[in-house]
Specification:
By secondary structure, the chain is an alpha/beta fold. The protein has 2 domains: about 150 residues, no CATH class; about 200 residues, 3-Layer(aba) Sandwich (Rossmann fold). About 30% of the residues lie in helices and about 20% in strands. The protein has 12 helices and 14 strands. It has a 7-stranded mixed β-sheet with strand order 10-9-8-11-12-14-13, sandwiched between helices. α6 links the parallel β9 and β10. α7 runs parallel beside α8. The longest helix has 16 residues. The N terminus is likely disordered.
């Protein structure tokens, strides 16, 4: 596996994780590299005695291909340093078109196999979120200030990765129109950095965040009227009274008991109150296709995030909401630009099972709910 290296390659994880989900992701990345024969060094202090190749992961939101370490270990090292570009949203030799995927690690794997012989020069501004030095070049990379300034780089065949945006920092503009204008109290459960709640603030309205992660709660406290560092159930019980609007923006799937959180919400809503919920769709066509191929690979974020405890489809969420004393008043979807072959496959799979093809085309479902009775 390490035939092209004269010494063991080293992966250097520079950044200290501030959050549990990032720490778990870095353990996953370290495990894939160790399995491919790499030595892993963690922390801000640089490794010493690096005789083989050196890979530096600077950005904790990178999601390397699961087999990426093996590809790097087998690669014939070009002269100088390698750079892997930031490919989220890019296309061309340094990335891919989002309308054609990849969407899941199953797609990443197919891309790596089909593109194994392709090399190309970076066409966009190089990105130092992940850098690799060939054997004999590690010393120069370690002695430079970070990020390095050397511009010589080339792509490594089959070394694909994806960079996620921090879900806690998503702006969620699509949810704003669902917030009732008359709502005087809005509670954003799992508020993250507080960007959504900050835009919902206005004279005469109180915006409260509930966030169990202390790091995120401190960030949100700068933007909202009040932040409770607690779980949904504890925070809603502490607020008391009839609330006008409660928001769960990609939060329920992270709870260990979604039914308990929804029941607590139903008990906290006022007679005219509204609950706004967005959840990832576990019946999304790329995920169903990967399952049909025998793959379920967790990722740092997104529809297959490893910190999801509950899976939702449109119909399963509607049933769960009814059991918790809530009724769905409005449903909408967020869709991805899937290629026509995958859309046709989704249509065929849904019709064969007696379902609705639309349930396989949505990446997320958005619901507006009211209390029963």
């Amino acid at each position: 596996m390490l035939a092209h290296f004269t010494a063991q390659p080293v992966l250097w994880l520079r950044m200290p994780p501030a959050r549990a989900v990032v720490a778990a992701h870095l353990r996953h990345v370290a495990g894939t590299f160790r399995a491919a024969g790499w030595r892993v060094v963690e922390g801000e202090a640089p490794p010493i005695d690096v005789a083989g190749a050196l890979a530096v992961l600077e950005d904790p939101w990178c999601q390397p291909l699961p087999a990426m370490a093996e590809h790097l270990a087998r690669a014939k090292a070009p002269a100088g340093r390698w750079r892997l570009p930031k490919v989220n949203g890019l296309s061309g030799p340094q990335g891919w078109a989002l309308k054609a995927g990849p969407y899941t690690p199953f797609d990443y794997g197919k891309l790596a196999v089909s593109g194994a012989s392709r090399r190309g020069q970076l066409l966009e501004r190089p990105w130092w979120g992940f850098a690799v030095a060939a054997p004999g070049e590690a010393a120069g990379l370690l002695t430079e200030a970070w990020p390095p300034t050397d511009s010589s780089a080339c792509l490594v065949a089959s070394a694909h990765l994806y960079r996620y945006d921090d879900p806690a920092g998503h702006r969620r503009h699509e949810l704003e129109p669902l917030i009732p204008d008359s709502a005087r109290t809005v509670v954003d459960v799992g508020c993250g950095h507080g960007f959504l709640g900050e835009r919902l603030r206005r004279p005469g309205r109180l915006v409260v965040g509930i966030e169990p992660d202390w790091y995120l709660a401190r960030q949100a406290a700068r933007r909202l009227d009040l932040v409770l560092p607690s779980t949904a159930e504890v925070g809603l019980a502490a607020l008391k009274g009839d609330l006008d609007c409660i928001v769960f923006a990609d939060v329920l799937e992270h709870t260990t008991d979604a039914a308990a959180a929804l029941t607590a919400t139903a008990n906290s809503l006022g007679p005219e109150g509204r609950l706004i919920v967005s959840v990832p769709n576990s019946a999304w066509a790329p995920m169903v296709r990967a399952l049909a191929a025998g793959r379920w690979d967790t990722t740092l974020a997104g529809t297959q995030a490893r910190d999801h405890f509950t899976a939702f489809t449109r119909l399963s969420f509607v049933d769960l909401a009814a059991q918790c004393g809530l009724r769905v008043e409005q449903t909408s979807s967020l869709d991805a630009p899937l290629p026509w072959r995958l859309r046709f496959w989704a249509w065929w799979a849904a019709r064969t099972a007696g379902g609705d093809p639309r349930d396989l085309l949505a990446t997320q479902w958005i619901f507006s709910l009211a209390r029963n009775g």
